[in-house]
Specification:
The chain has helices at residues 23-43, 52-63. The protein is mostly helical. It has a domain at 22-63. The chain is elongated and about 55 Å long.
Length: 66
């Protein structure tokens, strides 16, 4: 007979996956996820509004060679 555990209950310890990360791994992961989230937000935008200084910075960045 299967056990009736309430929905959202954590699984038994034997079925958990343990994951440990070093400080470097956490930092890299957070940076990568932040970058990915920003790329997703920016990819959906159709219009960007910049002040004069922002527009000049945008133009400076885009003039650089790839």
């Amino acid at each position: 007979m299967p056990s009736a555990k309430p929905q959202g209950h954590w699984p038994d310890k034997t079925s958990r996956i343990e994951f440990r990360a070093t400080e470097d791994n956490r930092s890299s992961f957070l940076l990568a996820q932040g970058l990915l989230a920003a790329q997703r937000v920016l990819a959906d935008r159709e219009q960007f509004v910049l002040d004069v200084a922002g527009q000049q910075e945008w133009e400076r960045i885009n003039r650089r060679s790839a």
